[in-house]
Amino acid sequence: MTGRHVLNDSHDNSELAELVRLRQPCVVLTGAGVSTESGIPDFRSPTGLWARFDPLEYGSIEAFRADPLKVWSFYKPRVAMLTEAEPNPAHVALAELERLGFVEAVVTQNIDLLHGRAGSREVVEVHGSIRSATCPGCGEREPLERVHQLLAEGDAPACPVCGEILKPDVVFFGELLPAAAIERASELARSAGLLLVVGSTLEVYPVAGLPEETLAAGGQLAIVNRGPTPYDARATLRIDGSAGEVLARVAEALRGEQPQEPQHAR
Ligand SMILES: [Zn+2]
């Protein structure tokens, strides 16, 4: 099969379900497009958060070091919004596909914890998450619940030990990605019979390099995304559609089916 640029229809959904069943193990890579259906805006879109907030002014590690209170003025409502968001049918379907044995792991660029809350177990968060915040001064780490308590008392969460302002454990611009997570993501991408990309435009490195690793190791690529990606021509199947609708139909098609044993030791 060659890469195809197609509109979402039921035929494509069943073709994707068949690919997932046959091309084991299947590793899923998700981006902001998976969470937009939970009401979380894609901050890289032209109408997203960064259109109103300069990322270098609010989302960079330099900005945080220079003025953590200013950065928290942006992050406080964002953390509240992420905490209130609920998993959508895309998250639920991926968790079900994992339970059914069709998905080995989800590698995600999202920091919103929605995959885990939907029931996914093997989740690799390559951009960190809002699960915790760490003190740059003494290294004290506080869970999200405590960060919420601290935010209820002030504009920014102060370290209970030394008083410095805590930094969310999400990857800021200018920060290195968590090495262990990136290494695990690469390993998964290389071992994948199918890398299923959902809701990512594959423009942000190093995550954007993962499909290359899958293809180089002999695996195939399927893409479910609204709008083009640089890998479209190399994808076995490409569906331009809603992540929630497409994945719900894939999960439905695979209920009662068995994943095929991987054919090649990689
Ligand atoms: Zn501290």
Account of the protein in words:
The chain has 266 residues and is of the alpha/beta class. The protein has eleven helices and ten strands. It has helices spanning 10-22, 49-52, 55-58, 61-66, 68-84, 89-99, 114-118, 144-153, 179-191, 210-216, 243-254, and strands at residues 6-7, 26-30, 105-108, 123-125, 128-134, 141-143, 167-170, 194-198, 220-224, 237-240. The strands form two sheets. Strands 1-10-9-8-2-3-4 form a seven-stranded parallel sheet, with helices on both faces. Strand 3 (105-108), helix 7 (114-118) and strand 4 form a beta-alpha-beta unit. Helix 1 crosses helix 11 (243-254) and helix 9 runs parallel beside helix 10. It is elongated, with a radius of gyration of 19 Å. The model has no long low-confidence stretch (mean pLDDT 91). The structure holds zinc ion.
If helices are DSSP runs of H or I spanning 4 or more residues, what is the number of helices? Answer: 11
Sketch the major β-sheet: 7 strands, parallel
Mean pLDDT across every amino acid position = 91
Tell me the Rg in angstroms. 19 Å
* Basic shape: elongated
- Ends apart, CA distance between termini: 22 Å
**Which structural class fits the helix and strand makeup?**
alpha/beta
Write the H/E string, N to C: EHEHHHHHEHEEEHEHEHEEH
Ligand species: zinc ion
Percent helix among the residues?
A: 25-40%
Order of strands, main sheet, comes to 1-10-9-8-2-3-4
Low-confidence stretches: none
User: How large a portion of the residues is in β-strands, by DSSP E?
Assistant: 15-25%
Count of beta strands: 10
